[in-house]
Amino acid sequence: MEMPFSKPQAPKRRDHVIAVDLGGRTTKAVNVQRRGDAFVLTSYAVLDAPVSDRTASADVLAEHLKSVCANLEGRCKAMSLAVCVNDSVVRQAELPTMSVEDMRMVLKTNSRIYLQQEYPNHVFDCHVIPSPALEAEGQKPKHSGLQKQKVLVAGARAQLLDELQEAVRGAGFVPDHVVPNLVGPINAFEYAQPQEFANEVVALIDIGFNGSTISLLQQGELVMTRVLATGSDQLTSELAESMGISYAEAEGIKVGMPAEVEGQLAGLIGPLGRELRASMDFYEHQHDRPVTRVYVSGGAARSELILQLLQQELMAECKPWNPTSFMEISVPAQQAAELEQVSPQLAVAVGTAMATL
Fold this sequence. Notes:
- By secondary structure, the chain is α/β, with parallel strands linked by helices.
- The protein has helices at about 60-70, 100-115, 130-135, 160-170, 185-190, 195-200, 230-245, 245-255, 260-285, 305-315, 335-340, 345-355, and strands spanning about 15-20, 25-35, 40-50, 80-85, 90-95, 120-130, 150-155, 175-180, 200-205, 210-220, 220-230, 295, 320, 330.
- The strands form 3 sheets. Strands 8-4-1-2-3-14 form a 6-stranded mixed beta sheet, with helices on both faces.
């Protein structure tokens, strides 16, 4: 899919980029190079995000990005950022057949018409979803302005984009792309699991800190997305409350000793699983096709118990996946030993890198 959503200084694709996933609790970053037809992961970083009750200022974020890059091997000036679902808009829409540049202008002035909501002072980007019928006939849509085409639309506040670019420059880098984090796992999955991406109906679930997303892919086409309010933070907070322990203790038990709290976790995972199952049911009813595979990313995907509990609710096999599996791995020895465990957390960052390279 590879939909960049803001291209401040990227007239052409690069062969080397640092991609940073600005998560709610942890920041994940990857340093990726293109070498011929291959992609090489030279280093990655996972570290605490800036602690703040509000959005970090450009200066605070710039210092944080400096810390992130101090943990990465290799020199690279280009940096792309992924922003969370709370700071971005991702919608499917039908727009008249026209150039992407014209679509951006139309959405800027008429967002309510095409997105059913006003988004003042937003910047938009678009990815045209190919028509299977036209592809089968080897045709391209004509820019007549009369026909309509399916488009995936992404947007964010112009002020936020300005602040992100200022922070990247303040950290000593060149701002390259900004990508909604919902798109990241889809981009990475296309490279990591090309056969399933092209031929299956799959659900991609990403369990983030402040929320979770589910994306339904049908033979490579994104047909449905949904953002849910339940994320790892809520699971840990409710676990801490139910057990009368601290947040830090609950997080440690959830990740390190989940069998000790299986009963409590089952009660917490249940509502999330039912909401995810409702999304899958809606798709299956609308398209009369079953979801054949479910892939889970995010920190919670490291827990076999959480995957098992989700599997019970979804009535479908839930599997973690490695977004770096298609890459050549050239990371430091210590990182190589930890990569398999960390990889489910890198899906958004890897997908952001692939939107640039």
